[in-house]
Amino acid sequence: MVQRRSLYQIPSAFWDEYNSITLDIYYMSNASAEAIRFKIEDFEYKYSQTIDQMIYNDRMADILRTYQMKQEFLNNKINKQ
CA-CA distance, 65 to 2, in Å (whole number)? Predict the structure, then answer.
């Protein structure tokens, strides 16, 4: 019998990529926005079925919310110039 906990352990690569994306979003510019969006989509594709859904949904929501806020900030900054 396989225990549930062992099925859904979070690999360290997940956290490494999550931190990398979060840092990329922090330093994002208009020039890098599309590349970061592709990185987010790749992250979503890799981990959507392989880790605990509660943690995955929470972290993806955090990434997407942060990305959207930064994108809006950059767009407003351009519109004011």
Answer: 35
